[in-house]
């Protein structure tokens, strides 16, 4: 099986990007043992990747709390299922308009600090 399992910093969750499980969000096991990519092991995750993972985890959690599947949320937000999947997994390069549409549909907002 190829891919990786990445920690979502500060969340107690893991993002499972192994083939066949792309984008699954998992709790860190009680043992605290899991497989990591070199990026996670060396602590070199870029701020952009960190932000993508945080936004994606939040979108997925909000969608699941709203009892919506990806197809339903994508339809309501006016984006494709592929775009929503990219947002939730922190992959690809979804446009800001798409991210904001999904967040708005979920009643969430994006705050920028500077």
Using DSSP, what is the number of strands? 3
Name the strands of the widest sheet in spatial order.
1-2-3
Tally of separate helices: 5
CATH class: Mainly Alpha
Distance between the termini: 40 Å
Overall description:
This protein has 114 residues and is mostly helical. It has a single domain (5-105), classed as 434 Repressor (Amino-terminal Domain). Helices cover 45% and strands 11% of the residues. The chain is built from 5 helices and 3 strands. The chain has helices at 38-42, 47-65, 70-77, 81-89, 96-105; strands spanning 5-8, 13-16, 24-27. Strands 1-2-3 form a 3-stranded antiparallel β-sheet, covered by helices on one side. Helix 3 (70-77) crosses helix 4 (81-89) and helix 3 (70-77) packs across helix 5. The radius of gyration is 14 Å and the shape is globular. The termini are far apart. 23% of the residues are buried.
């Amino acid at each position: 099986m190829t891919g990786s399992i990445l920690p979502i910093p500060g969340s107690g969750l893991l993002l499972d990007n192994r083939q066949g499980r792309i984008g699954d969000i998992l709790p860190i096991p009680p043992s605290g043992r899991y497989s990591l990519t070199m990026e996670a092991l060396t602590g070199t995750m870029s701020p952009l990747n960190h932000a993508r993972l945080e936004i994606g985890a939040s979108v997925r959690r909000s969608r699941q709390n709203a009892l919506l599947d990806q197809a339903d949320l994508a339809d309501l937000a006016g984006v494709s299922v592929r775009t929503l999947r990219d947002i939730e997994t922190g992959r690809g390069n979804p446009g800001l308009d798409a991210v904001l549409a999904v967040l708005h549909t979920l009643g969430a907002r994006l705050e920028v600090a500077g």
